[in-house]
């Protein structure tokens, strides 16, 4: 096991219990029981919890504690989970399988899947609005979340991605734009919100924003590489689906070797941005780990 | 023209220009142009703007100005518009017509309609997170918005409403629960957020919450009555659709006369809750107007 993997595993052992204890709390007692069940189904599907863990690690990197970042970490996982549920819908990527299980709409129906996503997105803001936080940190975290998730971020990127399937002219710049919005914006927000909740200085916050931007790019390139090279069983979801529908990806534009080179560059850029931070070991390990992950 | 209608018209003449000048601003300049267009299409479809206007009037009722409530008013209209776009989808109410025009997914496709709703919901929180507001008022307004829109509010009510179509046992209590969540929660939040942003005392805030609860009920009863009695052309949407699909409504449970009596009672209850407020004339007129509206 590499040093990065050991560090990542030790962070997960520390942080996941904190996260998991709180994750489904807002969806346990209420009138809309079936909708709550649909929400919990997707929250409990597991997954790598990359965004909430990065949020807590960013908080630690600037001298805060994981508990300080918890409302931000929960918000990131709610937004990420909502985006998966909506992206899997027939009108979007039309996927039947996610993390090795039937997708939300396959189990609960499309109407409830749409509403489960809506409820998760709403609760992401709710958890930050109601947590005990410094008022300035709260406002900034909420603004960063809205920026990362909305029209100028993830939702906009998903729209461009949908449109891209019918686009004739499509180059590397356009691919980068889509991924900067679709994947990068939320990863960046995870880091930046963690920094804010940890009381980062403006320059620390900017460094973690840039780190988030770079690992967002690396993450997406690796996703495309895995889609082109792994099997369904490896991924727990349908492999080769992008190539299969003629979708433009990093490997299709740069070749597999070119995509691997771009992945290495993005990871190196990410590591450079950590140089000035007091506690950077975990984030550096995660950057290396994400570039090497097999699913 | 009745006194209530005159007052409502004068409020609209005053408040709609303030609202309309700001409404589409966050969706004008960005990379995801088609998604922005989809969002603006639904925002510009007009409608009665009941929620944002009530938000500003609640602010005035406790001594504030409409401008103080503007971030809350925008947030309410964003959430309301998102809910219409998602509710019209084939997986939900499957409507082709809204406010006399094709529904969002008929024009932009289902994928973009889902994302347009997602972007609007996100921006509702974004506008409150970034406006110049007193920190305590900001946090409370955001928490009320999340409560009104989410699993314990509107989204939960819409899920119960979807489930209701296949439910065997269905009584007045269950119908009230659905409407309290589906329609009432957001109307109540509009009033309460307006009150908070106007610097309401706790008892004023509670009065406006109760007023919102009562007019939410009245609004839904009148919606059901209109669905049973008006034509498509009257409503600008499909009339008789609830009755047509065997959906339980106030007229189907109470008869048309019983429903009208329940509407009068809810309106009277609403008016009682205004008694202690300094500037209550506009809200009283709106309560009467909403119970008499023809669409």
What would you say this structure looks like, in words?
- 2 copies of one chain form a homodimer.
- Chain A is mainly α and about 300 residues long.
- Chain A has a single domain, classed as Farnesyl Diphosphate Synthase (Orthogonal Bundle), CATH 1.10.600.10.
- The first copy, chain A, is about 75% helix and about 0% strand.
- Chain A has 14 helices and 2 strands; from the N terminus they run ααααββαααααααααα.
- In chain A, strands 1-2 form a two-stranded antiparallel ribbon.
- The radius of gyration of chain A is 18 Å and the shape is globular.
- Chain A starts with a helix and ends with a helix.
- The model of chain A has no long low-confidence stretch (mean pLDDT about 90).
- Chains A and B meet through helix 2, helix 6, helix 7 and helix 8 of A and helix 2, helix 6, helix 7 and helix 8 of B.
List unreliable stretches of 5+ residues of chain A: none
What strand order characterises the main sheet of chain A?
Answer: 1-2
Percent of residues in helices of chain A comes to over 70%
The CATH class of chain A: Mainly Alpha
What is the tally of beta strands of chain A? 2
* Cα end-to-end separation of chain A: 16 Å
Fill in the CATH topology of chain A: Farnesyl Diphosphate Synthase
Along the chain, the helix and strand elements of chain A come as HHHHEEHHHHHHHHHH
- Helix and strand content put the structural class of chain A at mainly alpha
User: Could you tell me the mean pLDDT of chain A?
Assistant: 92
Total DSSP helices of chain A: 14
User: What is the number of independent domains of chain A?
Assistant: 1
Cα-based radius of gyration of chain A, to the nearest Å: 18 Å
Biggest interface, chains and residues, is: A-B, 57 and 57 residues
Using the 3D structure, state the CATH architecture of chain A.
Orthogonal Bundle
Describe the oligomeric state of these chains in a short phrase.
homodimer
Overall form of chain A: globular
